[in-house]
Amino acid sequence: MAGLPGASRARSASPGTPSALDGTFLCSPLGGLMGTQAVLGLLVWSLIAATTYHLHAAYGWVMFVSLFCWILTLLFFMTYLLQLQLKFYVIPWPLVLMIYNAVATVLYITAFVTCAAAVQPTSWRQWDYNRRAAASFFACLTMIIYGVSTFFSFRAWKGLGSNAATSQVTDHA
């Protein structure tokens, strides 16, 4: 994750400076992966919500996982976009992001398996079958993206790649 946005500004930013939008974050690998996670997570929970998921307990778990991870991903995305990680420099952001991505990967593995196993091709509502099958597909893609993010977060945490969160934590310590 070398060359992530904010690395040069991390040394000059202090906790008292106002936060600004980091436009280069959106083009970075971290920003791209988080944006992809948000879009795919939105697809998963909206496809499940468009079905009669309340009649099947398995889809309640898929809905919980997808909404929970989607909301937390949006919070992390906004934190990095607004450069709030520079204000809260006592938090080990690379470690927090790695743990979150690892937990989200495991949760999405369970959600994908649950969703795929609960799809019934003999459903009397064809549109429910199509939406649930599509939700299974997008849950699989989301799981893979969280796994890739876990890998890159691990590299950033170990210092194998330089990013804004890593450089600002070591500068203030």
From TrEMBL:
Transmembrane segments: 61-82, 94-119, 134-154
A cellular-component GO term for this protein: apical plasma membrane
Record's bilayer topology term: Multi-pass membrane protein
InterPro entries reported for this sequence: MAL, Marvel, MARVEL-CKLF_proteins
Signal peptide positions (record): none
GO terms assigned for molecular function: structural constituent of myelin sheath
UniProt key word Cell membrane: yes
Keyword Lipid metabolism listed: no
Subunit organization: Forms oligomers.
Protein name: Plasmolipin
